[in-house]
Amino acid sequence: MKNIDFILGIFLLTALLSCGKSYKKQAEEKLGLAINICEQGDSLTALIQLDSIMVLFPEAVEITGKAKEFSKKINSEILFRKQDQYDRLTVRLTELEKLFNTEKTEYDRFSQYIHKMQNFERRWNKSFIQLHLDERGEIFISSNYYGEQWLNHIGLRVYDGVFQAKTDSVQLSDPNNHHSEFMNTHWEKVSYKNGKDNGVIQFIADNADRNLKAVFLGKRMYFIVLEGFDKKAVKDALALSNALKQKIQLEKEIKALQSKVN
User: Fold this and answer.
1) For residue 126, what is the DSSP state?
2) Domain extent listing, the chain
3) What is the Cα–Cα distance from 175 to 37, expressed in whole angstroms?
4) Of 88-102, 114-128, 146-160, 201-215, which gets the smallest average pLDDT?
5) Which long-range contacts (C-beta less than 8 Å, at least 24 apart) are formed by 238-242?
6) pLDDT band at 186 (very low <50, low <70, confident <90, very high)
7) For the chain, which terminal residue's Cβ has fewer other Cβ atoms within 10 angstroms, N or C?
């Protein structure tokens, strides 16, 4: 009980001392804290402290003015780093984009990146895994089956020995599970969108040097060996996807910082 009374007394004394300080004194202390935090390398926490000065102590005009200037200085430094990061990323994007052709048909909302090694003309009568990537960095794969009998496949497993990854199922009734037939030849295309690849894209990219195989999973199973150029296409596309998304994010951050600095 005595301990509780002692702690309450400390809290009360602290509150009274705080109340006794002028707005200017409290604002000065908070500004000093922000400067100290920034010097320790924590710019974001320092900015939070500076913003709180302007909210809590608007009457301490001189101190809030210093807080605004210091906040502007920190944001300018962050902006410089972000712009430097953006410039380096642009060089990386230019190198990656050389590996792709781009196209945008009347049915596309966004420009599509097509890896130069995934030439459909040389595999129109083969089963294969296709990579799809658009200008937003959105990426997915599709399994394309070609054969004399319906496979009715709904998933895909890629493996090499005990190493494997498997997509989520895309049911036959799903619009992303497409069937067509021409002159007794059957085509099936299953698109694993919105994360339904379930890590298969990353698995292929991480294991492109392995002798990867794929099995189309349906009423029957159908096996293929992944071509070297297909594995490279997936690896390159994933790198480009990440770079495109990073570019979009950096553009947003730079725009927000410019509004704070100007």
Assistant:
1) S
2) 21-98, 100-249
3) 54
4) 114-128
5) 238/139, 238/201, 238/202, 238/205, 239/96, 239/205, 240/93, 240/96, 240/97, 240/99, 240/100, 240/113, 240/133, 240/137, 241/133, 241/137, 241/138, 241/139, 242/137
6) very high
7) N
